[in-house]
């Protein structure tokens, strides 16, 4: 007999009855039923009920056991008594009558329970992550993550992509976030950077003639953490293709992502034939570039109905050309209580309030706005929005560039409060035609709005003749249920166009050569048209596991302060290590 087990704790079935078996695992739960001890023994594969009564030679040893002790148990498989079967367990028809117990690893008093899924403080969960990972839901999430990555890898290879690994130690690059820097011992005063993304390397692979590349790539960004973005590091499905248009990339990647979602959707519907939404339309209709299309609400510009109206606050605003009034329909929200609740919510968001109109039976509009603008305008708004009696509409006004984010939040709030969001689907879409540049108010200059290596629509002609803030890029995102899960673009592969694009953003040609020398040189020696994307593995897994926190699908995450409480990172290093790296600390004064 094997030293530790003949079967796993998830393996025993009716066919094993009367066999003598050996199991090893953790004591998941121990119950005393009138002097008979029931021990649920757990390993990675499942749970088996083990029984010791006063007649068992192992009874004395069984009485010593505590939760999470690791033990070996020998015994005979028998059928559970009628009425005690557990249909929720694959092993639920049988139990093991224990004849011998060996304690392999006793456990101290637990800082958090493993049995059950009760909430527990995050700092305790992260400090004792090895215990947290034993809990069933988190354990299963991690296994699902592995299966999703396997599915991605398989589907990419079926699409004719080749897997490559790019370097981890590289040069600092302006990818939009702070780099993690690694000091060089061999080259004093110089630093490597951990890659924010394999962007330059994957483009260089296209210059090298490899045609279709992918990898499950680790990426490192020194960003502030939030629930949908882990601090420090994350993984992405990184992709690049040669001799392709934007449509070619969509045709290659849409089946991969759709297939992964369908495989793990657990019965939820998955969008087929994804819609393509222009960035400007997405901002206008949904108030965000990552719309949750499960929410049917679409905002509309209703400025014409308030221009010159009796509602002077909006009418005066509209005297300035840039200002507009947007309406957020609220089907079924035509009650005073709901409208007042939305108004209070808006005030809690730092707004003066949220104007509204309610429609009563017979189509009559009600509320301060309706009283001010009169029945004709109120009816015109109702017709434009396609609303009926019992519905409401909410209004935001001013410069859309300033209120658009709040409008998007209000749309989401209305959809959630009125239960309009269809939570039984994964609604996927492409968002396209992103602006190439944006105006940086802090630095008072034009800056890249997304990836600086994207091809502008119109190429060199657009860069030389158009207002930079009107140039669109061959740049696109994949969105799902209100999250951006992928981003990509067709690359700017012409060296003169690359230099011009960076020049508009304030980089001189020499700076481009200094910072992107490898790629700049490669562009001089025959660069194919190419493009790609990167899909966030962590966010896709989070969505498919039905959680909203990336810590629930990651093995050893950091906390909100970017600290690894389990391993004690970041940590101080010895003076000897600092001397070897030629580094002297200049710490801020303690407050």
From TrEMBL:
Cellular component annotations (GO), alphabetically ordered: cytoplasm
Swiss-Prot/TrEMBL catalytic activity: tRNA(Asx) + L-aspartate + ATP = L-aspartyl-tRNA(Asx) + AMP + diphosphate
Positions marked as site (Important for tRNA non-discrimination): 33, 83
GO biological process: aspartyl-tRNA aminoacylation
EC class (word): ligase
Annotated ATP binding sites: 221-223, 484, 536-539
Primary location: cytoplasm
Annotated binding of L-aspartate, by residue: 175, 221, 450, 491
Source species, domain of life: Bacteria
EC number, UniProt record: 6.1.1.23
Sequence segments annotated as region (Aspartate): 199-202
UniProt GO molecular function: aspartate-tRNA ligase activity; aspartate-tRNA(Asn) ligase activity; ATP binding; nucleic acid binding
SUPFAM superfamilies tied to this protein: Class II aaRS and biotin synthetases, GAD domain-like, Nucleic acid-binding proteins
Role summary: Aspartyl-tRNA synthetase with relaxed tRNA specificity since it is able to aspartylate not only its cognate tRNA(Asp) but also tRNA(Asn). Reaction proceeds in two steps: L-aspartate is first activated by ATP to form Asp-AMP and then transferred to the acceptor end of tRNA(Asp/Asn).
Family annotation (NCBIfam families): aspS_bact, PRK00476.1
Complex and partners: Homodimer.
Listed HAMAP family: Asp_tRNA_synth_type1 (MF_00044)
Protein name per UniProt: Aspartate--tRNA(Asp/Asn) ligase
Originating species: Rhodopseudomonas palustris
Gene: aspS
């Amino acid at each position: 007999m094997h030293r530790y087990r003949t079967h796993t704790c998830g393996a025993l079935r009716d066919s094993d009855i009367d066999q003598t078996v050996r199991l090893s695992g953790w004591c998941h739960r121990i119950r005393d039923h009138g002097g008979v001890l029931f021990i649920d023994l757990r390993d990675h594969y499942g749970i088996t009920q083990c029984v010791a009564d006063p007649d068992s030679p192992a009874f004395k040893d069984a009485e010593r056991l505590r939760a999470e002790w690791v033990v070996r148990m020998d015994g005979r498989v028998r059928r559970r008594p009628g009425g005690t079967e557990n249909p929720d367990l694959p092993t639920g028809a049988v139990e093991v009558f224990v004849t011998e117990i060996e304690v392999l690893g006793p456990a101290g008093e637990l800082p958090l329970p493993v049995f059950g899924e009760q909430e527990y403080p995050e700092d305790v969960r992260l400090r004792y992550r090895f215990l947290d990972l034993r809990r069933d839901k988190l354990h299963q999430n991690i296994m699902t993550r592995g299966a999703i990555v396997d599915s991605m890898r398989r589907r990419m290879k079926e699409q004719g992509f080749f897997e490559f690994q790019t370097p981890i130690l590289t040069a600092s690059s302006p990818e939009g976030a702070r780099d993690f820097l690694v000091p060089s011992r061999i080259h004093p005063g110089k630093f490597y950077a951990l890659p924010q993304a394999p962007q330059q390397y994957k483009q260089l692979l296209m210059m090298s003639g490899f045609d279709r590349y992918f990898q499950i790539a680790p990426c490192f960004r020194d960003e502030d953490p939030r629930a949908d973005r882990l601090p420090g590091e994350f993984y992405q499905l990184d992709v690049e293709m040669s001799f392709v248009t934007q449509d070619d990339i969509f045709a290659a990647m849409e089946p991969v992502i759709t297939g992964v979602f369908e495989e793990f959707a657990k019965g939820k519907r998955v969008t087929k034939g994804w819609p393509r939404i222009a960035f400007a339309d997405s901002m206008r209709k949904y108030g965000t570039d990552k719309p949750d299309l499960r929410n049917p609400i679409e905002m509309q510009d209703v400025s014409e109905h308030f221009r010159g109206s009796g509602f002077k606050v909006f009418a005066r605003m509209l005297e300035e050309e840039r200002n507009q009034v947007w309406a957020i329909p609220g089907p079924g929200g035509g009650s005073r209580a709901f409208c007042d609740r939305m108004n209070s919510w808006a005030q809690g968001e730092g707004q003066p309030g949220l104007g509204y109109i309610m429609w009563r039976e017979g189509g009559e509009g009600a509320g301060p706005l309706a009283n001010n603008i009169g029945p004709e305008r109120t009816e015109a708004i109702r017709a434009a929005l396609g609303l009926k009696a019992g519905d409401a509409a909410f209004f935001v006004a001013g410069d859309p560039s300033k209120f658009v984010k709040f409008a998007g939040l209000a749309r989401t709030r209305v959809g959630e409060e009125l239960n309009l969001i269809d939570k039984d689907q994964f609604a996927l879409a492409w968002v396209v035609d992103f602006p190439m540049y944006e105006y940086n108010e802090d630095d008072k200059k034009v800056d890249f709005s997304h990836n600086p290596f994207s091809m502008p629509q119109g190429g060199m002609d657009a860069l030389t003749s158009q207002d930079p803030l009107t140039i669109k890029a061959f740049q696109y995102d994949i969105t799902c249920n209100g999250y951006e899960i992928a981003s990509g673009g067709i690359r700017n592969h012409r060296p003169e166009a690359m230099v011009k694009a960076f020049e508009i953003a304030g980089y001189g040609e020499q700076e481009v050569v200094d910072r992107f020398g490898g790629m700049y040189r490669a562009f001089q020696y025959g660069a194919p048209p190419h493009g790609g994307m990167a899909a966030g593995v962590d966010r896709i897994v989070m969505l498919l596991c039905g959680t909203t926190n990336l810590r629930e699908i990651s093995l050893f995450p950091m906390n909100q302060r970017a600290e690894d409480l389990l391993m004690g990172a970041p940590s101080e290093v010895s003076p000897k290590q600092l001397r070897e790296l030629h580094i002297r600390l200049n710490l801020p004064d303690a407050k």
